[in-house]
Amino acid sequence: MKYIIPLLLSVSPISAENQTSAHATLQVPEISRLSDDSQSAYSSYLGTYIALQLLKNDVTLQDIDIASFFQAFEDGMNDGTDIKQQLARKDIPAHLNRQSETRRQQLAEEAKKIGEQFLAVNGKKPGVTTTASGLQYRIDRQGTGTSYNKKQHGTNPTYTVKYTVRTLNGTVVSDFTDETVEAADHSRLEGFDEGLSLMPVGSQWTFFLPSHLAFGDEHIVTASSMLPANSALIIQVELFGIKKGDETQTMYIEGVPFEFIPMDADAEETETADEE
């Protein structure tokens, strides 16, 4: 199977001195005009991209005066005379940095509180088990296949799985349920690693990860969602096989730093529930 890995462009600030001559030095090649439908799609893509970059920097719609934003955008695209003056301002970037830090701290505090409250209640529910690390799991279907064995599978096993990662409010962070993927141990989600090591092949479990077993104090922004620091996560996973893993190959998918190995028709056979 193939994975499409989104490329997030890195946009660096342009100094006022360089910006004023940008249009004069940049040679734009002539291209045929896009069709109306293509131009609409292209514009929608660019609008979405700009919005995501703003959200990534903790700028919300409530922070923006739309009329002023579009006027400045149009001026900038047309090499308006106000560019140098705007970019010379020091107060706005400083304000945005302070605002971003404050918002992230507030979100992190709220996420920690919500996560702790959820896990305290969830851990008392019938069928939910809490491990010594704080990981909670529920067995939705227990398989009859083999479980992780260090002697057989090594220190970095590879698990063939389908899974969905959600926030506590139900927002889907990653969804790989259409096809199986191979998830390597030692991902950045310690709770995911621990849970997989407990599952027999053929099982379907739900993991409830406290923040210290998820992304901890990292503020995560992906192409489709934003995770404040201290966020707890819910992972629904179905385990199809276990094998000794490849410790060198890493993939980043949908902005979530799990380790993945693409499925290969010629790959080593995995143990499956049917073989038991």
Automatic annotation (TrEMBL):
Residues 156-243 form the PPIase FKBP-type domain. Gene3D superfamilies: 3.10.50.40, Peptidyl-prolyl cis-trans isomerase, FKBP-type, N-terminal domain. GO terms for biological process: protein folding. It catalyses: [protein]-peptidylproline (omega=180) = [protein]-peptidylproline (omega=0). One of its GO terms (molecular function) is peptidyl-prolyl cis-trans isomerase activity. This is Peptidyl-prolyl cis-trans isomerase. It comes from the Bacteria. Coiled coil: none annotated.
